[in-house]
Structure formats: C-alpha cells, structure tokens
Amino acid sequence: MCGLCGLIEEQSDWTASLSELPRRQERYRRLKLINALAKPHRIQISDVHGVNYLVQTPTGKQAMANGLGELWGQIHTLTGKPIDVLDERFLHALETQS
User: Fold this and answer.
1) 20-65 pLDDT, tens per residue?
2) Which of 22, 31, 82, 97 could form a disulfide with 76 if both were Cys (CB 3.0 to 4.6 A apart)?
C-alpha cells in the first residue's frame, strides 16, 4: 500500500459505535485520553487527517499508526517498552494526574 492510500484508508475501531459525539469530536476526546496514557512514557500522539496517529518521542523518533492496536505496537517499537494499560501502578499514576 502506498503512503497516500494509508492516509486515506480508515480503520474502523470497536469503540467507534459507543459514542454519541460527532466523529471528529470523539476522535479528539480519544486522543486526549491516549496522550494521558502515553505521558509517563514521554510519548506525544497527534492526529493525522482524522484517520491515523503520529507517535513522537522527545528525541525526534516518529512513527505512523492506523488504529489503537497498531498505536500500542508503535509505542513499544519506539520506546522499547510495552504499555500495559492494566498495570496497577500505571493506573494509579493516571488517577493522581487528574
């Protein structure tokens, strides 16, 4: 698949049907939550054309991800550490952030 097709193609996510918000607004709400999850790992995630995610490290490494499954894999690839969103210490750190 060429790079352009990757940007145009939209991957449906299982959480998409759970929201009553407009699609773009839901995307930004989800992005805010994803960035809160990635913050302890010093990762920044941005929206790319409402379809993909751009994952960036403080050192300038970047990767594109299409969907949440691919996003977690890209974070692992860039940092060398997987994100365990069910880890109790991780969840406690999130609770103290907010």
Assistant:
1) 778 788 888 889 989 988 888 899 999 998 889 999 999 999 999 9
2) 82
Q: Which tokens sit at 56?
A: 């960036």
Residues 6+ away with beta carbon under 8 Å from 53: 31, 34, 45, 46, 47, 64, 65, 66, 71, 74
User: d(Cα 73, Cα 63) in Å, to the nearest integer?
Assistant: 10
Q: How far is CA 90 from CA 15, 83, 94, in A?
A: 22, 9, 6
> Which residue(s) pair with 53 in the sheet?
47, 65
Cβ contact 38:83 at 8 Å: yes
